[in-house]
Amino acid sequence: MNTVDHALLDGVLAHQLRPLAKTITLIESQREDHRARAHTLLEALLPHTGSAIRIGISGVPGVGKSTFIEAFGLYLIEQGLRVAVLAVDPSSNLSGGSILGDKTRMELLSREPAAFIRPSPSAGSLGGVAEKTREAMLVCEASGFDVIVVETVGVGQSETAVAGMTDLFCLLQLPNAGDELQAIKKGVMELAGLIIINKADISLAAAQTACSHIRTALRMLRPMSPNWPVPVLTLSALQKDGIAEFWDTVKRYRDTMTASGEFAARRKHQAATWMWELIDASLKHRFHQHPRVRAELPGFTAAVEEGRVTPSAAARELLGFLNG
Known about the structure:
The protein has helices at 6-13, 17-28, 32-45, 65-78, 102-105, 107-110, 133-142, 158-163, 180-183, 186-191, 204-218, 243-260, 262-289, 291-305, 311-320; strands spanning 53-58, 83-89, 115-121, 147-151, 168-173, 194-197, 232-234. It is of the alpha/beta class.
C-alpha cells in the first residue's frame, strides 16, 4: 500500500501551482513506481473534485483556438475566476515532446497567477488527446480552478475524445473557409454544444453568412440534447469582441443541462467510459509486459508480415500466453 505524498497533496489543495505541475508530471510518468504514487494521490484528491465547468475547444489549425482561449481566460480572471488550460499538442516523433508550445502562444495568460497552462504531448494516444488528460482535469479541479479548458490539435479523432471528457464541447469555425456546408463534418457537428465563428473582424458579412449556413445545417442533424438548441455565435478573439456573450452562453448551458438532469447524467456516463478505457489500457499494458509475449511477439509479427500466419491465429496464440 502506497502512502500519500502529503507535500503534493497539501500543495495542490492549497492552490499552489508548483505542486500542481509536479502532480501532473507524476501522473504522466510511465514508471511503475510513479504510477502507483499517482494512483494513491488521485484517490486522496477525488473528494475535492467535481465543481469546475469543463470545456472542450476544437477546430481546424489556424482557426484561432489559442487566441480565443487566451482572451477567454483573461476575461474569466477579470470576473474573479481561476482558469486551467490543458492544451494537448501533437508529439514529435523524434523526441516525444510537444511541437506547438502553448505557453508561447498564450503569453499574457501564462503570466496570470490565477491561470495555469499545461501543454501536454499527445504521445500517440487516440485522437491526439493525452492519455492522462482526465486525471489532469481532476487535479486542477482539486486545486480550486473554476473553469478547465481542454484544447485539442483539431485533427483526427481528437474532437470525439474531448467531447467525451468535457461538459461542453465547442467547435470553432472560420468565416471565410469557402462553402461552409461542405466543410462541416456531420459527426463533429452532432457532438458540439456550441459553435463559434471566430475571426469575425476579418469580414463580418462572411461570418454572418457562415453562421446562417451552419444554423441551417444544424436543423438537419441530430441535436446533442433535446433540451439545448445548439447556439452559433460570431466573435473576434483578437478584438476581444463576443467573449462575454460566449461565457453567458456557457453558463446558460450549464443551468439548462443541470435543470434537466443531463449534466449529472453526462458526467456519470463519462466516468463509466473512463473506467473501461482504463481497463483496456491496463490489459494492453499487462499484455506487453508479459515475459512470454515479449519473447514471442517479434517472431509472430514477422510471421504475420510474411503471410505464414494469419493475424487472428497470431493474436489467439499471443493472448493465450496470458493464461499460462
